[in-house]
TrEMBL record:
The keyword Plastid does not apply. Keywords: Heme, Iron, Metal-binding, Signal. Residues 59-156 form the Cytochrome c domain. This is Cytochrome c-type protein. One of its GO terms (molecular function) is electron transfer activity. It comes from the Bacteria. Residues 1-24 form the signal peptide.
Length: 171
């Protein structure tokens, strides 16, 4: 009990002094810049777009895949193969949108997912002062982030088509 009280008092003292515990700035949670060349991506407007400007552009998928595998695969799995990974399964990003039949509402849903994705990538994920994902703002450019998002969308589409084919093939 006394050990717990001492630790709690130590955390309170650090909080009052404005210092962080040693694990708060964990260097393993720093986002390294990717080596993948993004100069071949189509030009997009400066800053962050509201929706993915590369949506549906197959030419972006290859660069997005390379960027994903270089920057995201450590936690989310190579080529979005999520099995035994610590990060969430990104193939589930659009699961709520898949049920929306109205085209305009579906686009709005995808826009919401885009916003969530960009916010998560730029700011990272921190829960109860534990860094779960490093912030990539300033490390990944908007074209790089949108290319990764386009790769994820292409894999979600592939998965959906495979499911439809499996249902059609079933007796």
């Amino acid at each position: 009990m006394r050990v717990l009280q001492k630790r709690l008092l130590g955390f309170i003292a650090m909080a009052l002094m404005g210092t962080s515990p040693s694990w708060a700035g964990d260097p393993s949670m720093e986002a390294p810049p990717p080596k993948t060349d993004v100069s071949g991506l189509p030009a997009i407007a400066e800053g962050w777009a509201e929706t993915n400007p590369y949506r549906g552009k197959a030419t972006v998928v290859t660069t997005g895949r390379a960027l994903y595998n270089e920057s995201c695969a450590v936690c989310h799995g190579a080529d979005l193969n999520h099995r035994n990974q610590v990060g969430p399964n990104l193939l589930r990003l659009e699961r709520g949108c898949q049920k929306v039949e109205d085209a305009a509402l579906h686009q709005r849903c995808l826009s919401d997912v885009d916003h969530y994705f960009v916010k998560s990538v730029r700011r990272g994920k921190r829960v109860l002062d534990v860094q779960h994902m490093p912030p990539w703002d300033g490390v990944l450019s908007p074209p790089a982030v949108w290319a990764i998002r386009t790769f994820i969308e292409s894999r979600i589409e592939e998965q959906a088509k495979a499911r439809v084919s499996a249902v059609k093939a079933a007796p």
